[in-house]
Prior knowledge:
This protein is mostly helical. The protein has helices spanning 9-13, 32-39, 45-53, 57-65, 71-76; strands at residues 80-84, 87-90. The chain has one domain (9-93). The chain is built from five helices and two strands. Strands 1-2 form a two-stranded antiparallel ribbon. Strand 1 and strand 2 form a beta hairpin.
Amino acid sequence: xxxxxxxxxxxxxxxxxxxxxxxxxxxxxxxxxxxxxxxxxxxxxxxxxxxxxxxxxxxxxxxxxxxxxxxxxxxxxxxxxxxxxxxxxxxxxxxx
Length: 96
């Protein structure tokens, strides 16, 4: 959002990791109620719609095309994301 990466630790704890997690089977976005029911994550509507409106169309298109997701990659690294073998970022130390 505003050309900055967003990391919502509460969402990650609930299993919301990929753009695809915000989508229904038909590729449309989950409604706020569907999202909160699915992930048992209490958020306000402004935050939810701010997040989904910030997703670039090209990434949304790509998320709709992916048949499977590999959450294990993200979950196995905890809050540390490796860009490559010698470059990574601790997501807990970034602003959220």
